[in-house]
Amino acid sequence: MITRIELALKRGYYDADAEKIRLSARDLGVESIRSVHYFRVFYLLGEIAAAEQKRIAAELLADAITDDFAVDRFLQQDAEQESWSVEVTYNRGVTDLVAQTTIKGIRDLGIEAVKEVKTARRYQIAGDLSDAQKDLIVQKLLLNRVIEHVRQPDETLFFPALDPEFRLVTVPLLDADTSELLRISKERDLFLNHVEMQTIQNHFRGIGREPTDIELEMVAQTWSEHCSHKTLTGLIEFDGRVIDNLLKQTVFRVTRELDLPWCVSVFKDNAGIIRFDDRYNVCFKVETHNHPSAMEPYGGANTGIGGVIRDPLGTGLGAKPIINTDVFCFGPVDLPHSELPKGVLHPKRVMQGVVAGVRDYGNRMGIPTSNGAVFFDERYVGNPLVYCGTVGLMPVDKCEKRVVSGDLIVVVGGRTGRDGIHGATASSGELHAESEGTWSGAVQIGNPIVEKKLVDTLLQARDRGLYRAITDCGAGGLSSAVGELAETTGAQVELETVPLKYHGLTYMEIWISEAQERMVIFVPPDKLDEALALFAAEDVEATVIGKVTDDRKIRLRYRGAVVGELDMEFLHNGMPRPVRKAHWQPPAIEEQVSDDPADLTPALHALLAAPNICSKEWVIRQYDHEVQGGSVLKPLVGVENDGPGDASITRPLLDSYRAVVLSNGLNPHYGLIDPYNMAASAIDEAVRNIIAVGGDPEHIAILDNFCWGNTDKPDRLGSLVRAAQACYDIAKIYRTPFISGKDSLNNEFQTEGGETIAIPPTLLISAIAVIDDARRVISMDLKKPGNLIYMVGVTRRELGGSHYYAYRGLSSAQVPGVDAEYARHLFKSLSQAIQQGAVRSCHDCSEGGLAVALAEMAFAGNLGAFIDARQVPCSSDVVQTDWLLFSESNSRFICEIEARRKSEFENALAECDFAEIGRVADEPVLSIMDLNGELVIEQDISKLKSSWQKTLKW
Amino acid sequence: MKPRVLVLRAAGSNCDGETAFAFEKVGAHADLLHINRLLGGEVKLADYQILAIPGGFTYGDDISAGKILANQLKYQLADQMLDFHQQDKLIIGICNGFQVLVKAGLLPQVDVEADQSVTLTSNDSGKFEDRWVYLSIEATSTCVFTRNMPLLVYFPVAHAEGKFAVRDTAIRDRLYKQGQIVFRYCRPDGGEANYPDNPNGSVDGIAGICDPSGRVLGLMPHPERHIDATNHPQWTRLGLQREGDGVALFRNAVDYFA
Predict the structure, then answer these.
(1) Is the peptide bond between A586 and the residue preceding it cis, with omega within 30 degrees of 0?
(2) CATH at A900
(3) Closest-approach residue (CA) in chain B for A839
């Protein structure tokens, strides 16, 4: 028997869900909708008495004040008869979080008769709509067909449990020729090339048997680009020179050569660890989750943040997640639907979905999201980028794992389902117009509450010493987790013991499933009972699935039979190193010269409103950036808490003023012109953001995340080599070690017409710094009329890739460069001035240059400023005011100084280029005099602010 | 002796640490305890003087905010809750904790049998928002937690379901009459608030209420997030060094047992 309960808001309550549909339909050009009503629907399976049905509806599902409900009938919220009703529900096998919680709630009421629950949502839409319009609304607004469908009246909702018959599958490989090998690779979605397939073939010829399906899968997953980073650690022929392991030659090398005492563990664990204080270390990891987010933005971003949270949790013996960061790159949100390539979701929908996904997971985890960025470019239409990062806090004696033979392998947290099969291998390939279909297995929906319980209990188990090693189940699932953690020892796993979400998984699916919210711990036998009791006490599932061995083999058994056995040595070190060609030729770009308008006010308005500069408040406010209680500098600052802060500052220990500073740098528009200077600029931007708030240049670590196009193409890989070289050169001089990183290659999209859209080379640099005393930091908003305004650093004629030249439609190859030795000295001097308390506010000049930075400081402080451009230190080729005001030269800051601290400030910066360029004004007007002494900008700051805020005010 | 505070955790609680910190800072002893320990009988509510239900998303707020935990209190721990209240002890629910108290029949009065008369529902903005808000403290309030506090305080809110709604206006009038309205969202100058000063569309800008005894308080804003001067979003411009506005609320609770 199935009971159907439907709920809706009573009349008089504002239904935001329904209203969102109505407004979005208008965006799609459907104007004729008169009303939308939204209903929550629950299907309950079981022999349930009428009184119980009523109790479940009234005492659990409905709010007594705001909700109407109906059992086994439709609610009619509207007098209109002419309406169209659509019910949307999850596809079979997709996690239904609300259904799971509902079962718990029903049990709490003492009702045992309900066996299963499934949820749906119904929309009742009134208006004259054609069938085509209805279809458009369903496909574009009401569902994502990767995970949902329109429920049909006769549809089966609940399926009986069925276990598949166990059948061991071997793959005939030994006698296969090259084309057969490639066919097998393709058919099984292994994403292995012919050399790799031949290597596997040779290995099994040596053993003298055919591989099983699970063995092939495990090799494919371990050797995938996602897990092995084989391109960047392989051999690269770069313009006649062979680079043996690009990462080792650049980012790892900086860290090794700097050899700083506060770097605790770098590039070997799930996150890089640095010293925080005598008792604690902090670790930081940034991941990308691009491909899943392109297909299902909510679920993709959800699991992106969920996955990266498990990285610190799986670092050392586990770190408490304390801060999240998020950086997104999307296509233009105002892209006309007619220009959208087939098979791609509209950028606005992707953005709304991604933001909601990060919001719902991060907020529920109770981790403040305090730093991030959003960048728009049409080349991200097919491949949006979703970078998620998490900082963790861990006791200094919990930073090392120990893998001991005989320890028990325990999987903790969520159950294993068919979700996320082939994520690791598939994310190493390109997306195309049909990806939506083939990808459905790889889409996952997160359950943050399961993960929250996991964090809460694991940290207790850590502190009680109940396990000796831990790692997360990420890409590649148990296969990757156990395979990597037991690499030096060996492991045996009994696959039928793994707890499953539902019946019907094959042994192979169990092993490679990427179901979320799972961690693997290695528990000493004498601690097992205590560990299991601790997890049980907080309703966290923990199950022994195998043991650590000492034969350096991974052995997989299912119902008594060995279904796979691989040498760890072959698995981890048997991969043939690829040789790729790389080439870099700077693009031919015409050097164009702007006219120098007499009035630059319109240009300033346009830049402030540009999507890559404008306020991101719509995004930021939806994230909890205060939870855990240690927020010191929030992402939004100033008089009205809405100005753009440079870096976030957080006190992880509430009884201490020691704090963590976070920032990022990202300049994809420079990357197409000059990837070397793009990387240099990204590092400079991340570091100067930290300097601007008062961070210490001697205690900054950075992370690299390379997102590139298809690096099988020599020009793409060549630009990556150039960027990596800059990482070494600049970080070495800045003394900012890389402590962790991750790359995502093959971000290209094949349109139906065969056109390839590659993303711009996109290097995200994330920076983390530790400061002694959060009470000495400063913010970017102007503080007081009469204070002096200083420019620190040199402005050069560097308009290539700038927002100003983009706005004017002009080109230039002069991307901002970095004079690293000079900048390092400047950072140290400015930092000292801030530490002394000589600086009242400070803002770095980045996108949009000096004029935008000044405007931001002014409206954040609700104060005007009077600036004389003639005073700004600049190179001799800066002969136009527009260049001076909008060049995006690196290593520059604007500082506000009280008159009484003037000499102190100037002394601290004695050996740097700086100049007093104006004053904070009494009037709320930003006035700038040009190089001829004429007013070139004069504007009320409220107007400037309004331009800055209007673009993404959704 | 230090008053003992039970900070009640459940799956998805997430402001437990800073709530415990706030109580300990003003001299209490705070234990973070999972609800299973109460349900299993290992821990007795009677051993504590203050029960704090912190913010978070208990059980994911999957059905509606705080509902599952509320039902656990209502159907499985009602006797302990009633005894606790009758013994002149204090209960505070912050954010998700407020949602729980309202849905469990512990606010506006401690009566688990009564029909629910007020609720917290989806924000008018239709989304989760984190922002700082000014709150006026009603002069007529009988609340123990807000005694002698300044009439205007500044706390952050961070929620998606914080709109205070009543079954009918008579309920609201009675809350005023009995001194049960504690906090109302207001403009920086104390005046009537519209969005975003009233961040969720609450009726009359009501942000927090107490029971007629004044010993049970529920509020959507987070006093535990304004403990240190550096929590204040404008401390760098205002040169703030004094303790945050939230401290007094926790101190009042502790002083009640002095």
Answers:
(1) no
(2) 3.90.650.10
(3) B236
pLDDT digits (tens, 9 = 90+) for A711-749: 999 999 999 999 999 999 999 999 999 999 999 998 999
The verdict on residue A84 lying in a domain is yes
pLDDT for the residue A437:
41
Q: Which two tokens stand for residue A205?
A: 């010829």
Question: Is B159 an active-site residue?
Answer: no
Which letter does DSSP use for residue A58 in this model?
I
Whether B95 is catalytic: yes
A210 domain residue, yes or no: no
Boundary residue ending a domain (A150, A175, A199): A150
Mean pLDDT of the residues in chain A: 93
Find where tokens 């420019």 sit: A791
In sign, the C-alpha dihedral spanning A109, A110, A111, A115 is positive
Task: Considering only CA atoms, give the Rg of chain B.
Answer: 17
Q: Which residue in B76, B116, B126 is closest to A20 by CB distance?
A: B126
- Contact: A629, B227; criterion CB under 8 Å: yes
| DSSP structural state of residue A761 | P
A127, part of any domain: yes
Determine the Cα angle at B65 with ends B210 and B110, to 5°: 30
Residue corresponding to tokens 């136009």: A880
Confidence of residue A423 (pLDDT cuts 50, 70, 90): low
- Cα separation, A220 vs A234, in Å, equals 17
The CATH homologous superfamily for domain B4-255 is Class I glutamine amidotransferase (GATase) domain (3.40.50.880)
Q: Which residue has the higher pLDDT, A638 or A140?
A: A638
Q: State how far residue A355 is from chain B, nearest Cα, in angstroms.
A: 11
A359 in contact with chain B, both atoms CB, cutoff 8 A = yes
Q: Can you give the residue range of the structural domain that contains A140?
A: 2-150
Distance CA A57, CA A43 (A): 11
CB atoms inside a 10 Å sphere around CB A3: 21
ipTM of the complex: 0.96
| Sheet of strand A748-750: strand arrangement | A431-432, A748-750, A756-758
Q: Are A382 and A348 in contact (CB under 8 A)?
A: no
CATH of the domain at A32: 3.30.1280.10
- What does each C-alpha distance from B39 to A460, A483, B72, B91 come to in angstroms? 20, 40, 9, 18
CB contact under 8 A, B225 and A783: no
Of the pLDDT bands very low, low, confident and very high (cuts 50, 70, 90), residue A439 is: very low
Q: What is the CA radius of gyration of chain A?
A: 29
Instruction: Say if A131 falls within a structural domain.
Output: yes
- Residue A217, SS3 per DSSP: helix
Q: Taking a contact as any Cβ pair under 8 Å apart, which residues of chain B between 173 and 192 contact chain A?
A: none
pLDDT at residue A759 greater than cutoff 90: yes
What are the distances in angstroms from CA A837 to CA A634, A723, B236?
20, 37, 12
Determine the pLDDT at residue A77.
64
Preferred mutation among A9, A96, A363, A653 to probe B, highest tally of B CBs within 10 A: A363
DSSP A500: B
* Cβ-defined contact of B237 to A861 (cutoff 8 Å): yes
Catalytic residue among B85, B159, B222, B226: B222
Count of structural domains, chain A:
2
Domain layout of chain B by residue ranges: 4-255
Looking at the complex, report in whole angstroms how far the Cα of residue B163 sits from the nearest Cα belonging to chain A.
11
Among the candidates A116, A150, A184, a domain finishes at A150
Sheet of strand B29-34, all strands in order from the earlier edge strand to the far edge: B29-34, B4-9, B50-53, B90-94, B216-219, B206-210, B181-186, B129-137, B152-159
Give me the numbers of helices (H) and strands (E) for chain A, helices first please: 32, 40
User: Is B24 tagged catalytic?
Assistant: no
**Residue A92 pLDDT class (50, 70, 90 cuts):** confident
Chain A residues whose CB is inside 8 A of the B97 CB are none
